[in-house]
Amino acid sequence: MTLADDLSAEGEPEREFNPGIAQRLPRKRVAGGALIRDRAGRILFVVPGYKPFLDIPGGIADADESPLAACRREVREEIGLDLPISRLLVVDWMPAHGVWPDGLMFIFDGGQLDDDQAEALKPTDDELTGLRFLPYQEAVPHLRPSMARRVGSALHALAEGQPRYAEFGRS
After folding, report:
1. Number of domains composing the chain
2. Among residues 83, 108, 126, 128, which is most buried (max CB within 10 A)?
3. pTM, two decimal places
């Protein structure tokens, strides 16, 4: 079944019980990122040119794009690999902060790269100035605190085999 098939099976959309309410409902930003490791267990981080912190590969979902599809697309755009990203590790609610509305951040298991893949890796997106494989503890000082907590939760989920829910990185 495709998404179009599923939408068709839903039938006609519900009518607004109060005209205009759908446009007044809050919108959340949604993002998907990948926890990608090398054979030594180090985590792949991207070095964005537009902020002073490291990040994991991934990004904001486009309109009508799922968090998983956004993650896969962003990984292809940022590092040029089409990885079998699938298993959910973390869903993290982020509060509004500055100009950014609240949102839901998803981390998926990006798997482990073999030595040849890891060695040949380079950024394929102009927004990035580099890539770094780091052990989690070495990466923490270079991450926003909420991202450090989120990645830590993802590592626990990976080890436990169960996804986690977090709020601002706290499980």
Report:
1. 1
2. 108
3. 0.91
